Prior knowledge:
This protein is of the alpha/beta class. The protein contains nine helices and ten strands. The protein folds into two domains: 166 residues, Glycogen Phosphorylase B (Rossmann fold), CATH 3.40.50.2000; 53 residues. Strand 8, helix 8 and strand 9 form a beta-alpha-beta unit. The two termini are 33 Å apart.
Amino acid sequence: MRIALLSHVRQRIAQPFMGGMESHSWYLAEGLQARGHDVVLFASGDSDPRFAIDPVLPQHYERVFPWAEHRGSAPLIAHVDAGYAAACDRIAAGGFDVVHNNSLSRFPIEPQRTAIVPTVTSLHVPPYDALHWFVKASPSPTHRLTVTSQAQLRAWWPDGAPAEASVLHNGIDPAAWRFSPAGDGSAIWSGRMTPNKGPHLAVQAARRAGVAITLYGQIEDPDYWAAEVAPHLGPDVRYGGHL
Length: 243
């Protein structure tokens, strides 16, 4: 099949991954290619060149409009919306069999677009105002939606999910996460160092359990890191860097 894989554009779709959405899109593109599909990755233009990239934006928007400074601002919204609108127009004219939408944009889920190319949208985040209404209005015979858990399904559709929505748990490559019986009894936490990801809670939980912990991930919020996490570093709490 000829597949348009539409991703989030805040960060590059490339290793090392900033977070789960970037990882999901990268592994999905790699896996679909390995199965012989013709995959075009609609992402920032500075994403991994191993893929056929059709740039939504020339570079990931964090470089141009840092989230901490521009979150919700009109220039950032206009910049991203223009990129997705044009990308969706190219998808409609590109002879694709299906779209796998991993973005947080309203444009790919508009019914007039999903009527042209059948679309699967994977919702990776809890509902928020800017997207919630569009998602609720989007189910159709040519648009399917997935969430990562039953809790997410209830959050997006508290009054009951439509037949077009279902739970599809995120997968991992077991070859990259091999079991070893030789553990040392310590814990590992991996994710972005931000308040909503909660590494400080992981530290508290590890200490209550009486086990050492190693934290891995990008320090996205330096102020939070300095105030809530770094003071706890020591023999039982270690920072291992960004995987």
